[in-house]
Design brief:
The complex is a heterodimer of chains A (239) and B (267). Chain A is α+β, with helices and mostly antiparallel strands. Chain A is 15% helix and 26% strand. In chain B, α1 (5-33) crosses α4.
């Protein structure tokens, strides 16, 4: 009788509570995930492979495209359309910008709020890319899904617009580019490292990787960087 | 083969009618769909948090009767929205912009040059936004022009005020179930709906509160700027809990966002 009383009054509520308990046990508590939150600022490098294309596994057509881009840069022209003034840098160049960004960490979503051109990356956790990547509406920053691999946040990005370059030296890419980022903390949490692997069978003969380090910058506030109205007046705040 | 003239006319008229209908549906439906509050949400979508101080999630502008934009566009009779008490100078600026718009040659708002819409104007725009709450901060990610509002919950407004910026400087705190957001130091080029001028001294206080069991978010804003307005004035708007949607990438400079059709129809 007693057991029956426990279940009878509202089976739905009990079921809900049971499901909630199971979910709570299955889902890793957020506290266990590495805490990447905070304001980060790129440490030194803003380009990947200065000038020498031989270091990159570029396919023949891509070598030509890279040389054209380099010549355009040298001539003071603006390289591909994506680099017209006020068009976003796109991924992965956004992660190479000399501007701070803030990581907001929640269990189901990790958000990177960039000062640069007020871009924002929304990384949905525990979701997968669609089987057919053609379903993704091309975005400059692509579509990102993430998961934890031990201490590392692994972010898979696809559906990136092709009209940008990978870095300021003009490395080209196609609409097939897919990025895998591995974010880890170093130096006791003072440095965030992003190891970015670029896979793009239309441009490169094999995937290749580079790393970017960011310094934790807790005393920095993100400001407005609104093209074409000029960069933020950070010095006026004494920062 | 020769088609009879009458039949030809019917065929042509049908095609023309279908084409007109198609264009009308394509142009008008996004604008109507965003006001469709009756459509049931799929069952697996998350419910609003029962915690009154948790306003996380995606929200979308609701059209309400006290919304001057919606009333002007969809009301039975088109009435000019009520204006707050304002100085002669402010009224002249307002009238100049309104007259220019009505003449078909509107003056360029900063938003035409892809500047963020400012506070509280950005909250009027018919685009979704996502609220994210983390320790010491509430962040509002607006789809429109990627306007990311950072509300500092762990500090007072700095003195002296920071240099003016498009989104200003916002600090917030909770008063019971209400998030109170204080915004200063916006660029003086910013405008408030409809065609109302502001200055870098404009002080905006917004009070956000969940209503209707968390299905709606209310924003009561108060504008204080003695240069243009003799007394502080207030407005109110509502946003719908909108978990079926996500914030997409919006690049104003390209003007290729699919919802631009809706925005164009809306304005």
């Amino acid at each position: 009788m007693r057991a029956r009383w426990l279940i009878a009054p509202s089976t739905g509520r009990v079921r809900f509570a049971a499901a909630f308990a199971v979910l709570a046990l299955l889902a890793p508590p957020d506290a266990q995930a590495t805490d990447l939150s905070g304001i980060w600022w790129i440490k030194d490098r803003c380009e990947i492979a200065p000038v020498d294309h031989k270091r990159l596994p570029l396919l023949p057509d891509a070598v030509e495209a890279y040389k054209r881009n380099q010549a355009d840069i040298a001539a003071g022209k603006i390289v591909p359309e994506g680099n017209r003034p006020c068009i976003p840098d796109g991924m992965p160049r956004l992660m190479l910008a000399r501007y701070p960004f803030q990581i907001l960490q929640r269990p189901t979503q990790i958000t990177i709020v960039h000062e640069r051109d007020h871009m924002v990356r929304l990384i949905y956790m525990n979701e997968s890319q669609p089987d057919d990547l053609e379903e993704l509406d091309p975005f400059y920053d692509g579509h990102s899904v993430g998961k934890w691999d031990g201490d590392a946040l692994v972010v898979d990005t696809a559906g990136i617009k092709p009209n940008t370059v990978i870095d300021k030296t003009g490395i080209p890419h196609s609409d097939e580019m897919r990025l895998t980022e591995r974010f880890t903390l170093r130096d006791g949490g003072k440095t965030l490292r992003d190891r970015i692997t670029v896979a793009d069978a239309k441009t490169f003969s094999k995937p290749w990787s580079f790393t970017v380090d960011y310094a934790k910058s807790p005393n920095v506030e993100l400001m407005d960087d609104v093209c074409p109205f000029g960069p933020p007046q950070r010095d006026l705040l004494g920062k | 083969m020769r088609i009879q003239p009458a039949r030809s006319f019917v065929v042509t008229a049908s095609i023309a009618l279908a084409a007109i209908l198609g264009v009308w549906v394509a142009l008008a439906m996004p604008a109507f769909a965003q006001f469709d509050q009756t459509k049931p949400a799929p069952k697996d979508l998350p419910a609003p948090s029962p915690d009154p101080q948790n306003i996380e999630g995606v929200w979308f502008k609701a059209a309400t009767i006290d919304d001057p934009v919606a009333r002007a566009k969809y009301g039975d009779s088109i009435q000019p929205p009520p204006l707050p008490p304002m100085s002669q100078e402010a009224l002249a600026l307002h009238d100049q912009r309104l007259a220019a718009r009505m003449s078909g040659h509107p003056l360029l708002d900063p938003q035409v040059k892809c500047a963020p819409a400012g506070v509280p104007q950005m909250m009027f725009l018919p685009y979704p936004f996502q609220i994210i709450q983390t320790p010491g901060q509430v962040t509002i990610i607006h789809e429109h022009d990627r306007s990311n509002r950072i509300i500092h919950m762990d500090q007072a407004q700095p003195d002296p005020a920071p240099p003016p910026s498009w989104l200003g400087h916002s600090v917030g705190h909770w008063e019971g179930d209400t998030l109170v957001v204080d915004t200063i130091a916006q660029r003086p080029e910013n405008l408030m709906y409809p065609h109302l001028p502001m200055t870098e001294k404009t002080h905006v206080v917004e009070r956000f509160r969940k209503i209707d069991g968390g299905k709606k978010l209310e924003d009561v804003y108060t504008i204080d700027d003695p240069k243009y307005y003799p007394t502080p004035w207030s407005g109110r708007m509502e946003f719908l809990w909108w978990p079926r949607d996500r914030v997409l990438e919006y690049v104003c400079e390209e003007n290729d966002h699919p919802e631009d059709a809706a925005a164009a129809a809306y304005h």
